[in-house]
Amino acid sequence: MNEIKINNLSDLQKVKKIYNDNAKRYKMQIAVCGGAGCVSSNCAEVLQAFKEELAAYNLGEQIQVIETGCMGLCAVGPVAIVSPERIFYTKLDAEAAKEIVAKHIVGGNPVIDYTYYDETLNKHIPCVDDISFFKEQVKIALRNCGIIEHASIDAYISRDGYKAALDCLTSKSSQDVIDEVKKSGLKGRGGAGFPTGIKFQSGYNAKGKDKYLVCNADEGDPGAFMDRSILEGDPHTVIEGMLIAGYAIGAKKGYVYIRAEYPIAVERLGNAISNAYKYGLLGEGIFGSEFSFDLELRIGAGAFVCGEETALMQSIEGKRGEPQQKPPFPFQKGLFGKPTIIDNVETLANVPAIMLKGSAWHAQYGTETSKGTKVFALAGDVVNTGIIEVPIGTTIGDILFKIGGGMRNKKKFKAVQIGGPSGGCITQENLNTPADYESLAKLGAIMGSGGFIAMTEDTCMVDTARFFMDFIKDESCGKCLPCRIGTKRMLEILERITSGCGQEGDLELLEELSITIKDTAMCGLGQTAPNPVLSTLANFRKEYEEHIKQGYCRAGVCGDLFISPCENACPANINVPGYLSLIAAGRFVDAYNLIRQENPFPAICGRICTRPCELKCRRSTVDEAVAICDLKRFVADYAFKNEKTSKSDIVFPKNGKSVAIIGAGASGLTCAYYLARIGYTVDVYESHSIAGGVLAFGIPEYRLPKKVLEHEIELIKDAGVNILLNKEVGKDIDFKTLRMSYDSIYIATGTQYPIKVNIPGEDLQGVYHGINFLKDTNFEKPVALGKTVAVIGGGNTAIDSARTAVRLGAEKVIILYRRTIDAMPAYITEIDEALEEGIEIMELVAPVRFVDGSAGKLSKIECVKMQLGDFDKSGRRRSIEVPGSNFFLDVDNVIIAISQYSDLPFISKDEIALTSWGTFVVEDQTLATTMEGVFAGGDVARGPDTVIRAIADGKAAAVSIDKYLGGKGKLNKGAAISIPDTFDEDEVVSLKRFPQELLSPEERKDNFDEVVIGYHKLNAMAEAMRCLHCDRR
Amino acid sequence: MSDKLADCTCCCCENCKEFDEISNIIDLYKGKEGSLIQVLHSAQNIYGHLPLEVQEFIAEKMDLPLSEVSSVISFYSFFSTVPRGLHTIRVCMGTACYVRGGKNLVERLKELLDIEIGGTTQDGKFTFEIARCIGACGLAPAIMIDDVVYKQVTENKLESILSKY
User: Fold this and answer.
1) Pick from A223, A315, A320: which is nearest to B133 by CB?
2) CA neighbor of A1024 nearest in space, from A635, A627, A640, A638
3) Tens of pLDDT along A784-819?
4) Can you give the pTM of this predicted structure?
């Protein structure tokens, strides 16, 4: 920069012209992001590498290299943009920089491999303007961030910087400025959303010569990093904003209060201020007018409460940052006793743009009541963490999914915390809510400063509330009793709950304390401190109750409540780390017996379980989850082969009471097994000719051989369970008779009936329903399949049907699914194995009708293409038809596998409470129905669910029935098994799973041989040793 | 005692140089109302921490009651009255970092350094603290050692990061 003063428009334009002329002489530009995130990721090295490499090619004069402010996509930094093509490079290092110079700058070919990779679209998108993260944004406060050199005042001026200030100071009155800001609809962006124009007006109206303008840059909300991006990327917009605001209110002195945790911001803003002084843009007689304005930096010292305006002013005065009573308000009596106006960084950053382009331009963005844009900081479990700016009113779902890229690791979205420790959480039912002040307030949240922390199923909401309260308790200044003591008491209650010591009445006490503190605390910190607790209680009360009443943390976070995340996630609470230790020690049969204490079907589950444990396995944060399920299968198969070494179960003597169980599926047999072992006489009534339910006929042989199922059922019969086959309740025996003959009944009939897709042609010849198709195949009834088979659905039944069709000789099998593959509920290895076997999956397709070829036989399916729309109540995007995209598929057969329902012909709706979709209404913990002595569990009580859940229900029902019949509810799990205490203390090295053997696709396509052969003993032991033993304390 | 320090011109007291520097800083800020906190920042940078002697010195020089200087120091978490390690490790426990595993980093550091939060290692090398949010949420979980921010830190990376110091 030149050391001349800028006194008028012509001076300003001269600087602009010189800068732009200089810029024109460069052929290309490399803009390297120097936002705080990229600085921490070592962008300095990248910048250096670019410069050195260009010098080596003698291109230093032709290619401009600049360091800008934050470009926004912190998750993939360091980043850079090469212009004029605007190619966006990510995850750079010195090596990549050199390669880009050689191949792109010199060679003319962008290096696609280093450009941005979109995870949801699965492809590279080289040009920044095509990336949806950027496309959806409108940048006003961030208009220069990521574009200009943050350290250059000339660069700022080249984009019409300081022109607005010049205009205001030389040709507008203070009232003119205030009116324009009022018309623009700008509201405070720090959190309260107070109309900025009105604030300026009150500052202007205040009497007195000495007034102060203060910029609140004490961005203390955890999860907020918007203001720092503005300060570090475009400091002059804040200076210009303050200049204009100072003029509007008549202040001669401004302070910027920056928190001490932002040394980069302090440095860059400090330099910017000094440059502004050099140009005469600060100081005496600016632009030759009578207006003088001095700007000084004040640094905080680590107190969150100093973000509150009265505490902030105390801090600027060098005192303890304790909030003061209001009234008097700052505009009446503020800093040093004088009228003071305090504005947030982002608010001020908007002011120059508004004055330059006009209030009408600004008011085109946003909603009726909240105009303009808002900068949000996306953090937490979302893919695209970083800074964005969007028009106010953009929906939360769009922010998180369209711009944010959805949840990391394909985890399920649970809630988003908006507004920091003063805010609340928005859940999946409200994803369509626009992010504006009013809509969020209606949901019990606040806009706040703009922090958006995404949380998935792995976050415990009670622990989150505790975390925020811990923060607030620490940051409480201590001045007023409600906050000082109240937050501590609330924290104590939350800590008890998360450590398993929650008591009856705790939740009511939390609510009472919350309301009292909100009413009586002196400042905003205390008044909003209870918000996270109130919000999580309102939206996730069940989680709190689970912690207190059941000692259960569903997210697997509150370590005092479980052995390990895997054991916690298992509905049957199998001691996973225990059996992995036993396998690692070579004690396979002991491992098998340990599992059998909690689950009588290890061989089954080891083959078909949905593995909720593996989703929580902490090993996946290192490399890959431990193969908990496959190892279960290994020990079960091992025990089967070495039957002599597995003991037979201990059974208590008969107690004279009897229980009838309807349905010999996983749930019924589990309940029977545990009841028999504590002495009950148990009769299981099964309508089919074989026992096992869905395990017997709904799962194909190549996944679950009959031999295996028969063996496990034999062991259950050995415990004294009596299975009566070919006995249908309601036909062969009356339900009333059962009730009279037995002391208690457990109904576990499952969901046997396929849900119809209800489109024309469903009853044509050649149309099957999944569960019936599988049943017929398993019972070896002939099923005529033609060459081309379509399967409709995306769950395990659909995949099972498709793979069975292949084995029955179909040449072409296509699965039609109305969403995308990654949304399919089927287990991932099933999908992979299906694809290996040549099955095709068509995404985003739905059937419209089945077409009759001739004589009632199916010949085609009319389909329509689908697209993803807005969110439904479960947080998934609705799948909606693309109008006019219909097409036809020639098929010989179609198998419809979209879900099942239960039907209870033996019991009338008048006698027992049923839900609208035909399942029993049961009491949560006891599984009791509304009929005395009758219990229900598994799919018939839950709707289609997993086998392990059904098994867990069976076990829980056994406990309930025992209690109902006068027992203590204590199950007989046999002798305790000693578990070795050896842990591997060595450093964890990244190592993917040890493989088990599978049949190759060729070997398996035309037969029903079991596809998975299993683990070799040594690989099993090694795999078990990958366990991190999260159970150790 | 503070009189002696204020007037000390000989080189026999241990921290003459530091007190002189602090004195210069105070002079720089003369005339700027309410600059106690800025002075305290500089004084701590120079002296390392703010023990009673330094507090008395500053109070004397700035014509403020010792109680006021003391109360400001005790309010703000950045100021320490006890010696701090050569390097300060701050683990960010902001929401985003917490959600991404900050707690585990804290436990691991406690083990590696054999100190509690707020403590300083035996050899005076490291002081271990929790930072609230350091504003690097895009890079969670993050830790800071002095001014340098380390991003996406895992328990395994900790040892190699510490070995740099």
Assistant:
1) A223
2) A627
3) 899 999 999 999 999 999 999 999 999 999 999 999
4) 0.86
